[in-house]
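FORM 7B: Structural annotation worksheet

SECTION A. Query
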Amino acid sequence: MTDLTHRTLTAPAEVDMALVVGASDELLRQMEEAFDARITVRGDAIALEGDSIEVQQLTALLTDLFRRVQQGDTPDAEGLRHAIELLRNAEFAPSALRDDVLLTYRGRAIRPKTAGQKAYVDAIRRNTVTFAVGPAGTGKTYLAMAMAVAALKRKEVGRIVLSRPIVEAGENLGFLPGTLFEKVDPYIRPLYDALYAMFDTEKASALIEAGVIEIAPLAFMRGRTLNDAFIILDEAQNTTPEQMKMALTRLGFGSKIVVTGDISQIDLPKGESGLVQVRSVLDGIDDIAFCDLTGKDVVRHSLVATIVAAYERADRKA
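SECTION B. Predicted structure
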């Protein structure tokens, strides 16, 4: 029989234990279900009893929860689930994710929430060109946008350029009503949505009006050299190899580019995706990084991760 390990943790005086255990003890029950150990809470003390590894992991988890509450955070079930996954996969302690990328205008911290997202953010910091490939909900565009805004605020770049390829779904743009920008707006609207999550509408609109932030279809990039810019090419699975080469060669002095996409959602009517081809061309070159995000990095509703995992299993069987 395995010997039981006993350990008692005492929360710092400024930590509200109600936040640690969650409303109606929701977070406490979540920990009890995830770990083969007994957790007893009395006042500001938490007694742990169980296998030594389980107690060790719970100690790391609870210590991290204490620190988060001290920093003004309110732990929630989704964040706790990701922290438990990190511990289970032995990737690193949850505290390693306390790496704020940006504070939004509402005062909310944007930070990586999974090991894959942390590696992605670190890759953007270290490299001039970063590719992020993964399913919906893994934070590819959102984190890239946060990194771009942070770089702009630190004056590391003078402008942000956001772009997407336009793939027409059964309708020719020429036959759609409105001006050119009215026609392409639905294609690039998600970029505006991400931007407005970080700036208030008035500030974002002023920056766009001044040309500090540019949002445009990929075709508008042709023939340009983009110096002193943080460039994001989103939905890059819908670029052709020629478009991908064109986008990457817009890179000028003092610039950085992040290319994001999901190769399971290619809408090109024919031919090879530039995002699929580019790895075989550029992989292994210094200052270029490829980050593969998976269902483990999905940070939307927990059911989204389950759906992504189910599709990945189906693809492997096909």
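SECTION C. Observations
The chain has eleven helices and eleven strands. The two ends are 44 Å apart (CA to CA).

SECTION D. Sign-off
Analyst initials: ____
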